[in-house]
Amino acid sequence: MKRSVSTLIILSLFSKKSFSQNTDLILLKSINQNEYSQWDAAMKITSTSVFPFAGLSAGGILLVGYINKDKELMRSGCKTIIAIAAAVLFTEALKYSVQRPRPFVTYPNDIVMRTDASDYSFPSGHTYLAFATATSLTLSTKKWYVAVPAYLLASFIGYSRMRLGVHYPSDVLCGAILGAGTALLTWQIDKWMRNKKKKNSDKKEIVN
Question: 35, 140, 144, 150 - which has most CB atoms within 10 Å?
Answer without folding.
Answer: 140
